[in-house]
Amino acid sequence: MKRYLIILVTLFALACEDTEKVDQLQKQVDSLKSVTSVDQTVMNEYLKAFNDIQANLDKIKEQENILAVKTEGDLELDENSVESINNDILAMYELIKKDKQRLSLLENKLRKSHSGNKELKRAIASLKNKVSEKDLMIENLTSELEKKNVDLSELNTKIQEMDSTLASISYSNLSKDSTINEQDEQLNTAYYIIASKKVLKDKGILKSDGGFIGIGSNTKIKLKENEFTQFDLREQSEFNLKNSRKVQIFTDHPEDSYELVKNSDGKYEKLLVKDTEKFWKMTKYLVVSLK
Fold first, then answer.
1. What is the pLDDT of residues 132-174, one digit of tens each?
2. Domain that holds residue 256
3. In the chain, where does DSSP find H-type helix?
4. Residues 205, 287 contacting (CB under 8 angstroms)
5. Which of 14, 92, 196, 279 is close enough to 257 for a disulfide, judged by CB 3.0 to 4.6 Å?
6. In terms of domains, do 48 and 142 share one?
7. What's the whole-model pTM score?
């Protein structure tokens, strides 16, 4: 179901010239969203962004058509016409810059989500291409106007001011996004060590009597983290148990949140996390001894 929804998102982004198709696809997307809650909030966010960007592209297309009429022919443009053209170009430029920033944030968000979703990547890439085409259109238009000796000095000044303002806003957004990402990474960082009891004792992770020193959610960690393998708990749900005869887990994890998988010889092949949130709720450390 999730795949169908994502495919529709891609189609929605690509079907930009046919209003009837867009309306039809939107109805299908709405229908699917009503029967699935898988990543619904995230998908809604992407859908809204795609829709907003496409709306901006439509506005640019309208302005482009208006400008084509204003600038056609070899007639000399009066002061009012030049001012009107400058304002039209500036309005298009602002929409393009904002679309670029929006797409950049979406791209960064998708990359940080670790989902690796190809359909969403294609949808973003498609919109980036469309925005780049409009950017090139403005460059060509201003070049043609300069050939007609149209004064664009005021326009260039306003564009520089706008670039400075938008860059400041973009930096602020990226800084906030970076802070959120850092916090997100910290929350999803976990550690594990899987070894024999002797190795665990030598490292000071197990007491000499075989007891565990204790790593709970409210216990200050006194172990050196370099004794453990650090990883993103969203990306790893299986841990190699090296076909061991016996396995003992010393950290606290609900039994129904994982499974010890055996091979055909009855030896333990891997630890499989079935419920990530539940498994790592008590502690972000996993200590397993093998024999």
1. 888 888 888 788 777 777 777 777 777 777 666 666 655 556 5
2. 189-290
3. 2-14, 19-33, 40-71, 79-112, 118-147, 153-187, 197-202, 276-279
4. yes
5. 279
6. yes
7. 0.44
